[in-house]
Amino acid sequence: MRVGVIGGGLMGSGIAEVCARSGVDVTVVEVDDGRAERARAAIEKSLGRGVRSGKLSQQDHAAALERLVVTSTFEDLEGADAAIEAVVEDETTKGDIFRRLDELLPDARFLASNTSSVPIMKLGAQTKQPGRVVGMHFFNPVPVLPLVEIVTSIMTEPETVGQVRGFAQDTLGKTCIESQDRAGFIVNALLIPYLLSAIRMYESGFASKEDIDQGMVLGCAHPMGPLRLSDLIGLDTLLAVARSLYAEFRDPASVAPALLNRMVEAGLLGRKSGRGFYDYSTS
Ligand SMILES: NC(=O)c1ccc[n+]([C@@H]2O[C@H](COP(=O)([O-])OP(=O)(O)OC[C@H]3O[C@@H](n4cnc5c(N)ncnc54)[C@H](O)[C@@H]3O)[C@@H](O)[C@H]2O)c1
User: Fold this and answer.
1) In principle, which of 83, 125, 148, 163 could form an S-S bond with 174, CB 3.0–4.6 Å?
2) If you measure from the C-alpha of residue 121 to the centroid of ligand 1, how many angstroms do you get, rounded to a whole number?
3) Above 90 in pLDDT, residue 117?
4) Which atom of ligand 1 is nearest to the CA of 11?
């Protein structure tokens, strides 16, 4: 099987890595050669970590790299059996990708989006095959977290759901849950208001960021506090999901705090930019 992954950022590179490790040929498309090179380097680095930690043999490492193609030419996706889109959380960009996928892959088993918030139906509507368009929502870091949310639009065909479930579970070894096409799906509808309230708590001077995070780690056995988790997700992604939740439900709990807006405007996007609530420039 050959899968196309569009976007090789945080999520796309993780998805591509998991595919390659699972015996799937994978072609990653990025916007330009520089980004493509960065995506390849990120995947190689993560595979290298797998070897060092003893989870991946040298032989499997080499085989995974052989299955991986990273390119800046969209047409290199031609002939792929399925596609997973993981570009920036922007409806126009994603819509454009789905129009191009529709033309290039008329016989794909599924055209999936890893979107956290764009309605799957809006992406399906850009194609002549909305029955094969589906949400396939992975979690970060993709090689570590076992969950995939399968999101069905009102047009997604049961056969498509079967294909995606089979691929995610049997080929990639993930566990699937199924959600209808509502902003936030299952996990983010619960998680995002919690993260926003932690940011509001910090913004108000109520408590320090360290104490907020420690409170949830030591008091609730969460593996990571909400501000550190926000940094890991990416503050731009968090803001985009908050906006789509608010647009759909008008729930004040989903209003982005001013501090989050200012941080994104300043380019403080969390771990991926080197600084968010915490400084990662030396890690
Ligand atoms: N970060 C998370 O924790 C998380 C979790 C689940 C889902 N998601 C979703 O995954 C998607 C990607 O998020 P991310 O965190 O990887 O973002 P990111 O900013 O790390 O990566 C996005 C990548 O898309 C590339 N890109 C933009 N336009 C493109 C195009 N036209 N063609 C090819 N590549 C293009 C960019 O160059 C960038 O490398 C978003 O829809 C996001 O909501 C993110």
Assistant:
1) 148
2) 19
3) no
4) 16
Whether pTM > 0.85 for this model: the answer is yes
Query: Ligand 1: distance of its center to the CA of 250 in Å?
Result: 25
For residue 282, the model assigns a pLDDT of: 84
In ligand 1, the atom with minimum distance to the C-alpha of 113 is 41
Spatial neighbors of 41 by CB under 8 A, at least 6 apart, are none
Give me the domains of the chain, ranges plus CATH numbers.
2-180 (3.40.50.720), 188-273 (1.10.1040.10)
CA distance linking residue 78 with residue 76, whole number of Å: 5
Name which residue sits closest to atom 24 of ligand 1, judged by CA. 87
Average pLDDT score over residue span 63-91:
97
Structural element, H or E, at residue 197: helix 187-203
Read off the pLDDT band of 217 (50, 70, 90).
Answer: very high
238: tokens are 């968090």
Catalytic positions: 116, 137, 149, 188
